[in-house]
Amino acid sequence: MNRIGILGAGRVGTAIARSAIAAGYDVAIAASGPAADIELLVDVIAPGAQAMSAEDAAAHGEIVVVAVPLHKFRSIPSTLLDGKVVVDTMNHWEPTDGRLADFDAAPHGSSTIVQGHFTGAQVVKTLNHIGYHFLEVDARPDGDPARRALGIAGDDDAAVRAVAEMIDRLGFDPVVTGALRTGTAFQPGTPIFGGHHAAADLAAEAEQHLGTSSLTGATRA
Ligand SMILES: NC(=O)c1ccc[n+]([C@@H]2O[C@H](COP(=O)([O-])OP(=O)(O)OC[C@H]3O[C@@H](n4cnc5c(N)ncnc54)[C@H](OP(=O)(O)O)[C@@H]3O)[C@@H](O)[C@H]2O)c1
């Protein structure tokens, strides 16, 4: 999978666009309006990415990254991402989102609710627990002892593999924690969220959070 569509041209979306272009991906990016509204911004902030409408960026991506504020994700039509591997970077972040009742009461994590909206897509949670400003500075080649790990959770094995490959190409060790609900291990409030972990440390933190019985195997992909 070499084509990435990114929905959201803010801090996270443009940082992922730059990293993905550096990794050799063919990248399209969209905000909520027409492509023309963000063409100049994209040329300056994420050169090499193509500014598109959300519909066109979604169609472009074999992997579609959703990087919009969580309280706005339902403005993306639920069928727009049918058949896609969807990377959910979003967090329930009260200063931005306010209190969202359904996310407050989400024992299996915010991404399971996102999956419930995009029923025709395979949602994979990752890239939510690294600050956008670290994506480029912390990227390292495979095997570098200082390489940082990122958690990955998803229900579909093929989608998880595609996203793990993407994370590796972006310069991070992918650590698959298991099913989508295991993404609770790297949501806000956990040690992994905002922390800087090597792969073994991240897997150990996830195991501790989830308990060995609920974790099918925290493994480096
Ligand atoms: N900030 C971080 O370091 C960080 C790290 C990891 C994850 N996250 C998560 O990543 C998400 C994005 O955060 P951010 O800081 O990048 O937000 P941001 O800078 O406010 O950017 C949000 C972007 O989403 C776009 N958008 C809104 N509705 C859309 C739609 N229906 N279709 C396409 N684009 C749409 C906005 O476009 P318009 O201007 O046209 O509305 C804007 O370009 C949040 O859920 C956040 O919790 C943040």
Mean pLDDT: 95
Strands ordered across the widest β-sheet: 3-2-1-4-5-6-7-8-9
N to C succession of SSEs = EHEHEHEEHHHEEHEHE
Which CATH top level class fits? Alpha Beta
Q: Strand content of the residues, in percent?
A: 15-25%
Straight-line N-to-C gap: 16 Å
- How many alpha or pi helices? 8
Instruction: Kindly report the CATH topology.
Output: Rossmann fold
Tell me the helix content: 25-40%
Structural class category: alpha/beta
Q: CATH homologous superfamily, by name? A: NAD(P)-binding Rossmann-like Domain
Assigned CATH architecture: 3-Layer(aba) Sandwich
Tally the beta strands: 9
Overall geometry comes to globular
What characterizes the major β-sheet? 9 strands, mixed
What radius of gyration results from the CA coordinates?
16 Å
Please tell me the total number of domains: 1
Q: Give unreliable regions as ranges.
A: 213-218
Bound molecules: NADP nicotinamide-adenine-dinucleotide phosphate
Could you characterize the architecture of this molecule?
The chain has one domain (3-210): Rossmann fold (3-Layer(aba) Sandwich). 31% of the residues lie in helices and 17% in strands. It contains eight helices and nine strands. 48% of the residues are buried. The model is unreliable at 213-218 (pLDDT under 50). The structure holds NADP nicotinamide-adenine-dinucleotide phosphate (NAP). NADP nicotinamide-adenine-dinucleotide phosphate (NAP) is lined by residues 7-13, 30-33, 54, 67-70, 72, 75-76, 89-91, 93, 128, 131-132. NADP nicotinamide-adenine-dinucleotide phosphate is lined by residues 7-13, 30-33, 54, 67-70, 72, 75-76, 89-91, 93, 128, 131-132.
